[in-house]
From TrEMBL:
Pfam families: HTH_40. It comes from the Bacteria. Residues 249-338 form the Helicase Helix-turn-helix domain. It comes from Nicoliella spurrieriana. This is Helix-turn-helix domain-containing protein.
Length: 347
């Protein structure tokens, strides 16, 4: 991560672990990563940087600390200084990590982005009747999808639809973001700029431009969802990119839990370890707040009251040892579940 990308995911108020941020971006979906991603409000960014270089991140962190932009709380937690906060607001005026990427939570943004870029390139060349060009390579599966998509829509006003849809979307953007978006596109006699090339022109870091791009494509997905009847070919590019935040296996475990909340029985029936069943249920609770009323029923009134008496204040600072002193046999699973439920309740 470059410096702006690191600072974008840090906070002045909440000490944060860089490892959680990295694991989120590379999509290492452990329960710990999901829990702290929820606390940092960054789970919407899951999987957006699969080739992240953690060695480079450590070097940049040292520079940020030396420049007085970031402070180190302990061996693993970092915070923005007031100087760092001012800098990230200057370098990233439109977006913040706390606003999230709602479309990426439900659609594979990177997959859609590749499809969009290839679809526009092919349509642009088609509009000039040019058959001699090198199309982008986006992977066999999506290459085949775009080929079928193009043959289906090319004789149904495709060129005009994409022109109208693109202009409509761009008209809703600030001029500088519209410029960035257009300059990433490949078309007839037009090669899209890399982030490095845009960085040189705009005198901005590639990290801040990458953040802009995430939000631009997130907004484009939302735009197409809201205008699918106007731009059906463009909307069709989303086909097959939808995803459930909760894994299929965790969702299946939850369905069994709804029928029978005895965890050992669920583990036996699903042929899973008990620890895996617990991880599945924690994952569901973290990613689907609508399930919280169900999970709260796991706690009897006395236990819920005891936990409420023991734990208050900043949820990030709660320690499992506190309940263990009162109830030595208390299961960590219930402590973490209580944290999740209170996180939604308390904010």
């Amino acid at each position: 991560m470059d410096q702006d990308l690191i600072m974008f995911f840090l906070s002045a108020e909440q000490p944060r672990r860089i490892k959680v941020i990295e694991n989120t971006l590379i999509q290492r979906r452990t329960v710990s990563t999901l829990f702290w991603g929820m606390r940092y409000q960054i789970n919407d960014f899951m999987g957006l940087s699969p080739k992240l270089n953690s060695i480079n991140t450590n070097h940049e962190l040292v520079k940020l600390i030396q420049a007085g932009l970031v402070t180190k709380n302990d061996d693993s937690h970092y915070r923005l200084t007031s100087l760092g906060t001012a800098r990230i607001h200057t370098h990233q005026p439109y977006f913040s990590s706390s606003t999230g990427l709602s479309a990426n939570a439900n659609y594979n943004l990177l997959q859609f982005r590749k499809r969009w870029l290839l679809a526009l390139q092919i349509t642009s060349e088609y509009s000039y009747r040019n058959q001699h060009y090198y199309p982008m390579l986006i992977g066999n599966r999506d290459d085949s999808f775009i080929k079928q998509w193009f043959h289906h829509f090319k004789n149904h006003g495709l060129v005009n639809e994409i022109k109208r849809g693109l202009n409509h979307f761009l008209s809703q953007l600030p001029n500088d973001l519209a410029w960035q978006f257009v300059k990433r596109l490949n078309g007839h006699s037009m090669t899209g700029m890399t982030l490095l090339q845009q960085s040189a022109v705009l005198k901005r870091t590639t990290g801040s431009l990458l953040i802009d791009e995430w939000y631009l494509f997130d907004n484009l997905i939302i735009f197409l969802l809201n205008h699918q009847s106007q731009y059906p070919a463009c909307y069709d590019l989303l086909m097959g990119t939808h995803r459930d935040q909760v894994s299929n296996s965790a969702r299946q475990t939850y369905q069994f839990f709804l029928q029978n909340n005895h965890l050992k029985l669920i583990a036996n029936y699903r042929k899973l370890r008990l620890s895996t069943v617990k991880e599945h249920l924690l994952e569901v609770a973290i990613l689907d707040f609508k399930t919280h009323a169900v999970f709260k029923q796991m706690f009897d009134r006395n236990t819920w009251q005891l936990l409420g008496n023991l734990y208050h204040g900043n949820l990030d600072n709660w320690q499992f040892d506190r309940i263990k002193q009162q109830r030595p046999d208390f299961d960590y699973f219930y402590f973490r579940m209580y944290q999740i439920l209170r996180s939604n309740q308390d904010g």
